[in-house]
Design the sequence.
């Protein structure tokens, strides 16, 4: 099984008029996510399932990654992928899915999920729009907006 953990792209700052869950991707964030999605497609990545946190910035990231990677299925919301969601619940749901699963979330839960899935208990924070491929129980490689070719971990 391959799990592609993806941190959402750069979003607008929250303020008194915009709740955290309503924050959306900036132009820079959308561009970076599109580039990462194209890089995944170029690397031959395809998804059986795309799961995302329900927050706007994560849903937008999932939509853009899916579009650029050629995924045409339904993007499913998984509430346990919220920024402080129960990662054990998220991990159990993810592991019951296809062989190639994209998972879009937030810090600190997305790196905590990587730590849980790899059995290390800890994983470095993901950068915005960064993807980490977990193959089996190993963090195999990463792609981010600054390194659009897969880099071994």
Sequence:
């Amino acid at each position: 099984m391959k799990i592609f953990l993806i941190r959402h792209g750069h979003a607008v700052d929250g303020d008194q008029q915009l709740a955290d869950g309503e924050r959306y991707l900036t132009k820079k964030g959308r561009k970076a996510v599109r580039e990462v999605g194209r890089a995944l497609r170029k690397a031959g990545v395809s998804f059986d399932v795309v799961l995302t946190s329900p927050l706007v910035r994560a849903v937008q990231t999932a939509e853009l990654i899916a579009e650029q990677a050629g995924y045409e299925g339904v993007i499913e919301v998984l509430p346990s992928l919220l920024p402080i969601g129960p990662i054990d619940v998220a991990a159990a749901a993810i592991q019951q899915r296809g062989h190639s699963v994209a998972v879009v979330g937030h810090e600190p839960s997305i790196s905590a999920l990587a730590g849980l899935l790899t059995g290390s208990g800890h994983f470095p924070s993901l950068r915005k729009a960064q993807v980490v491929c977990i193959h089996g129980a190993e963090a195999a490689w990463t792609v981010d907006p600054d390194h659009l070719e897969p880099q071994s971990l």
